[in-house]
Amino acid sequence: MSRRVVQRLPIAVPAAVCRATRTLWPTSLPSSPPQTPTTPAALAVPSRTVRVPLPARAASSASSTRWKTRQGNDSYAREAKLAGLKSRAAFKLLEINDKYRLFKKGDTVVDLGFAPGSWSQVAANRTSPGGRVVGIDVIPAQPPKGVSTLQGDFLSPEIRAELRKYVSEAARGRPRVHHQLLSQDAEDAQEESGATQDDLDAENKGILELEKAAGGGGRAQKLNAQRQLDEAEGRVVDVVLSDMSEPWPLVTSTWIKSVSNPWRRMMNTSGMAFRDHAGSMDLCLAALDFSYDTMATGGHFLCKFYQGAEDHALEMRLKKLFERVHRIKPDSSRKESKEAYLVGLRRKAGVEKETVLGGD
Predict the structure, then answer these.
(1) 150 and 270 in one domain?
(2) Which of 186, 211, 234 is the last residue of a domain?
(3) Are 158 and 267 in a shared domain?
(4) What is the per-residue DSSP string for 273-339?
(5) Does residue 86 share a domain with residue 229?
(6) What is the extent of the structural domain holding 157?
(7) Where is this region: Disordered (predicted)?
(8) Strand pairing partners for 241?
(9) Cα–Cα distance between 137 and 152 in angstroms, integer?
(10) Would 68 be classed as within a structural domain?
(11) Is the Cβ–Cβ distance between 347 and 296 less than 8 Å?
(12) DSSP letters along 154-208, please?
């Protein structure tokens, strides 16, 4: 059987067919896309510094520049800072107190318009130990050590009623340690002597009898009776201080730091003498009205005012309620300022309110 041999001959493929074949079945497929790393370092977005232009600082006004210059050259302002006082106004009260002796240890003091607190600092120092100082202001302010404060508008009847209620409670705002020491000392003295309360009352009665025999009993009894009457009617304040000033009307509804802050502080002058004077008279009369309701017989009154046509009438009102009235402008008060102070010493007993605050 013969074997069949098949010979494969080369076949020439046309070029057009080759191009079509390469198009349909490419000889080199593209490689798979590279895998993205998932490590934290690879995923982190590169940082880039972005420079944002800051708003330019507004130039200081002429009045602000003058104020800074004046403060820098003011010896009282420098002394207040060195002494740790809230403001230079403390020296005004120190000067007035050195002259008229407003404070004594254990007094109850009300500071109207206390912020930033320099007058309250002085009052707390001069009435310690055992005294209490209560301040009120329309703005929130950190009270000095040993001072209690209320935030509110003093011209509001509700706020004044709340303040009267606060000071009528003798223990509120007074150091607790002082009360505890006094109570403990009284108990110890009573135990050591073996005396009862009846014995002490009898002893006090005997002292009054001796004073009466010596000619001084009538005065002692009157003072004791007046003190009890004052306490029963809520008149327990020994000193009322007022450093308030009336702000001009806030006419804008938007918050502007240079306008709104001074308005809320109630401590600015408008630059108009008549307006400042009239506003200060209203505040002084409000302080006097509060003093009539809360001040004990023998108490003292101090208020700041801006000089004008009506301050003489205010002085006359004070003379009806206090034994002595003085007008003073402390050396620490700036010479160009229109401010002055009225001091009423030793409140009289039995004066009708209509006589003091009624129509002239």
Answers:
(1) yes
(2) 234
(3) yes
(4) HHHHHHHHHHHHHHHHHHHHHHEEEEEEEEEEEE-STTHHHHHHHHHHHEEEEEEE--TTS-TT--E
(5) no
(6) 73-170+236-357
(7) 174-201
(8) 111, 302
(9) 6
(10) no
(11) yes
(12) TTSHHHHHHHHHHHHSTTTTS-HHHHHHHHHHHHHHHHHHT--HHHHHHHHHHHH
Same domain, 203 and 321: no
Q: Does 304 participate in catalysis according to the annotation?
A: yes
Measure the CA–CA gap between 200 and 16, rounded to whole angstroms.
136
Residues 206 and 331 in one domain: no
Q: Closest Cα to residue 245, out of 263, 228, 233?
A: 263
Q: Are residues 274 and 299 in the same domain?
A: yes
Say how many domains are in the chain: 2
Q: Among the options 99, 165, 304, 348, which is catalytic?
A: 304
In the block, residue with structure tokens 């002595």:
324
pLDDT mean by block of 10 residues, the chain; 360 residues: 56 57 52 61 63 62 57 68 77 93 94 90 91 89 89 88 90 69 48 47 46 57 81 90 68 51 48 65 91 94 88 93 94 81 94 84
Whether the CB-CB separation of 341 and 305 falls below 8 Å is answered with yes
User: Which residue is listed with tokens 């198009």?
Assistant: 23
Q: What is the pTM of this model?
A: 0.66
Residues 333, 217, single domain; the answer is no
Same domain (yes/no): 213, 265: no
Domain contains 290: yes
**Alpha helices, H only, 214-255:** 217-232
Question: How far from each other are the two terminal CA atoms of the chain, in whole angstroms?
Answer: 160
Other CB atoms within 10 A of residue 246 CB: 20
Which CATH number fits the domain that encloses residue 128?
Answer: 3.40.50.150
Q: How many beta carbons lie within 10 A of that of residue 24, not counting itself?
A: 6
